[in-house]
Amino acid sequence: MKLKERLAMAALGFSLAVVLLVLLDINLVIPHTEHGKSLSQHGRVKMGGRESENYKSRILQKTASQSQESKLVKSEENDKSQESKDEFKDIFQILMKIAQKHNRHWKGSKSNRAKNDNPTFGEVVSMNEESSTVWDRFQYGISKEEMYPDQAPIITEVVDSMRQLPIVGITQKEGGTQLKLIIEYEDGGQALFKPMRFPRTQETLPNHFYFTDYERHNAEVAAFHLDQLLGFRRAVPVTGRILNITRDIYSLAEGDLLKTFFISPAGNLCFHGKCSYYCDTSHAICGNPDMLEGSFAAFLPAKSVAPRKTWRHPWRRSYHKRRKAKWENDPDYCEVVKDVYPYNKGRRLLDVMDLSIFDFLMGNMDRHHYETFKLFGNDTFPVHLDHGRAFGRSSHDEMSILAPLYQCCVIRHSTTAMLLSYHSGPVLLSAALNRSLSSDPIKPVLTNQHLEAVDRRVGLVLQVVRECLDTAEMAENVVFIRDDLYSNVKPDQPVDDGHYFRREK
What we know:
By secondary structure, the protein is of the alpha+beta class.
């Protein structure tokens, strides 16, 4: 009997083991299938077992497990991307209809703009061009509409000067969280230098918040080229350059900066300067052994000549480990913004949409303020500055950067057309960006992973535009072919003095 009992128990145990293995196998398959379905909704929030009807509510953060699952799903989607690519023909047809109604080309050309509607600093202050330097011609050529005209020769001159002119002076820029140097050239010009800290392949550390991330010199270079390719032309010229630390920095350094130079155990010349973050021996900037890459950004006109107004960005993040900004909890937050001048009419809100798309394509979450030139009033462009924290995570698309777009559902006709052109080809945005960056001295500026991410994000922006159009009463309430067609003016609306959207207490 004892032997029979043992055999019976063994058989029972074996049967239970088989059943458990079958159940585990089923559980491993089912979650991937369900997650694949949910990802196709581009981050919409699920409520009550069905898709939320409020397209303005989106998942702002993902858990580590979700990120791992999304990587598995994306690898499967990439294999099918060529077969299932959405051409967004419905959006193209809408753009065509709006353009025909207004007798415009579907790409929204600005060629019919009167010259006297777009004065430059030089025209306003009557600059003498004959006695000006290359830096003066760039600065006084800044206009009400843009930082520089399309295909302007002066930009090539400025970039070449920053790459080639001998450096005669160096000082550390005051303020800021990380080290920046003011470069002085022999002809009197200046540039802002951001040094290389780590290789292109090193991305944002998983445990770093967006406000403690390192700044990347190559991100500044790539941002300038991307801004130009998108047709915005609101960023200052930036180029890469390779310096000899001994000749170009150490020999010119003085005071506190000079005291921070040392030779590392590997025999490389290093320095760290003084700043809020990452300015100590353990976070030093080192040459190889004394050669160093960096980005050089052209200076804007002196504030005494062209004063600037600083605006707190309405969709500014909290810059806090736990607290969220108001817009992150309120899907109808845009109604508050649209009720405030200058976001209630004209170009400003549409400029913010362009800026959010620009930031999203780069993965830049660090947009807390922006500036405009006071000389041109409020009907002028926001300057695109400070992109050192862009291009940090190639595998992650931070949809919350597009909050202005999916909460307001307004966008320029020209911006939509430009995105469609790059999405459908024949030249993808990644190819155009890579070709533009190929002339820079520090090429390759971006890894292939970041270039691929730019193309992927173009499609995500167009998907948000489609969702807005699907829920709008009229397409022209979403897509504006002229800035003056947007208006939400009402009696007794508040005015933003630059600090209206201050941090909520």
